[in-house]
């Protein structure tokens, strides 16, 4: 009778012992890996070019300290460093050095006079590399033929005023949808305007991207995958710390990232494929159409599906938050300054000649929509 508890106790002890040993082996491996890494880093840094002055960098440890800091802590920290080391300093945040310039003439000299040296983008970190199909989006492609091809395609095929005109029918439809939604929502006592702006921008951008008026559910689905990815990217930064190592230790988080990317492909790819299949019967030229035609001279191939997903995703992201936030601010300020609002209405009346029928359309925030999209993209590229 008494044997069983004792034996289970013994088993427990044995299990704990084994667990301890496994843990110890794990810890030792980690410590050894860190030591090897430190040695590797120390031997390679001696070969890199001399950097501007900055605080002491201890491989691994400094990166770990940075991981704990929030972005808002960066500016005050930089100010103290500039006071100590001068206007140009180098900091090692993450796996590569960043140079900060705190003097406008020096900044002008480097970014304008010597722009060719600084205009390239660094190699993407592993999680970002995955999301942009190895830097195949305009905002991360390295400076060169591929970047120029992608940028020119967007500027001349989509954002050129003549091309924007071809979307006027859908602009009006989106504007009507937005005004109706805002009118209905404003009947309740308090409401948030931003989700309606988001939705309107998504409807417009999804149409411009895939040339198709998709269902409300589909728009919501696209918006969901895009937003989830956008908001969770910072959570995956830690995976870049040392990828070979995090691929083992943080396998679950890598899988989560791959799943999110897969979810995005599942939603966007069918729309791209549909465009590929019904060649010829198209009333407008969508962004996906231009991508299907595009040839990357430098890499000597057409864009693959993965790259097209990344570019479409960039197109959708690039114009949504930027424009909706601008619209929200415009509306908030019009509410806050009634005299500005009155002046605006008067100006509109002058232009449309006292005919109030079109007024809601122009006063409605959506009137700014396309200008906003173009502005946002011009900032981005
Ligand atoms: C940077 O620009 C100046 C001219 O403003 C030029 O004299 C200098 O050679 C450039 N430096 C490099 C490294 O190209
Ligand atoms: C382009 O790809 C990079 C990753 O390399 C990503 O950080 C960035 O958000 C992407 N741009 C847009 C607008 O989605």
From TrEMBL:
Keyword Protease found: no
Keywords: Membrane, Metal-binding, Transmembrane, Transmembrane helix
Annotated SUPFAM superfamilies: Cytochrome P450
One Pfam family matching this protein: p450
A GO MF label: iron ion binding
InterPro entries recorded: Cyt_P450, Cyt_P450_E_grp-I, Cyt_P450_sf, Plant_metabolite_P450s
Topology in membrane: Single-pass membrane protein
GO CC, any one term: membrane
Cofactor: heme
Domain of life according to the entry: Eukaryota
Main location: membrane
Subcellular location, record wording: Membrane
Sequence intervals crossing the membrane: 22-39
Entry protein name: Cytochrome P450 89A2
Species whose genome carries this gene: Vicia faba (Broad bean)
């Amino acid at each position: 009778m008494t044997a069983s508890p004792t034996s289970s106790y013994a088993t427990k002890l044995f299990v704990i012992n084994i667990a301890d040993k496994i843990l110890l082996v794990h810890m030792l491996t980690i410590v050894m890996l860190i030591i090897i890494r430190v040695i590797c880093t120390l031997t390679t840094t001696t070969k890199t070019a001399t950097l501007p002055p900055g605080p002491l960098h201890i491989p691994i440890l400094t990166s770990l300290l940075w991981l704990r800091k929030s972005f808002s802590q960066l500016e005050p920290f930089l100010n103290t460093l500039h006071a100590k080391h001068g206007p140009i300093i180098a900091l090692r945040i993450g796996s590569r050095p960043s140079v900060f310039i705190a003097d406008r003439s020096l900044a002008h000299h480097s970014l304008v006079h010597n722009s060719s040296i600084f205009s390239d983008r660094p190699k993407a970190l592993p999680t970002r590399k995955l999301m942009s199909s190895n830097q195949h989006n305009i905002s991360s492609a390295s400076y060169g033929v591929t970047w120029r091809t992608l940028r020119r395609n967007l500027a001349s095929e989509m954002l050129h005023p003549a091309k924007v005109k071809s979307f006027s029918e859908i602009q009006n439809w989106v504007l009507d949808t937005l005004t109706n939604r805002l009118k209905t929502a404003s009947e309740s006592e308090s409401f948030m305007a931003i989700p309606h702006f988001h939705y309107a921008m998504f409807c417009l951008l999804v149409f411009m991207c895939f040339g198709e008026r998709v269902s409300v559910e589909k728009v919501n689905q696209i918006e969901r995958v895009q937003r989830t990815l956008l908001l969770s990217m910072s959570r995956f930064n830690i995976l870049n710390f040392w990828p070979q190592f995090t691929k083992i230790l943080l396998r679950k988080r890598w899988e989560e990232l791959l799943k999110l990317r897969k979810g995005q492909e599942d939603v966007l790819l069918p729309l791209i494929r549909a465009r590929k299949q019904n060649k010829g019967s198209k009333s407008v030229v969508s962004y996906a159409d231009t991508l299907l035609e595009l040839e990357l001279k430098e890499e000597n191939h057409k864009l693959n599906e993965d790259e097209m997903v990344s570019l479409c995703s960039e197109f959708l992201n690039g114009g949504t938050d930027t424009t909706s936030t601008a619209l929200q601010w415009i509306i908030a300020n019009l509410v806050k300054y009634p005299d500005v609002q009155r002046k605006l209405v008067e100006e509109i009346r002058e232009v449309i000649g006292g005919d109030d029928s079109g007024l809601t359309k122009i006063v409605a925030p959506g009137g700014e929509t396309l200008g906003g999209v173009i502005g946002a993209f011009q900032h981005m590229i």
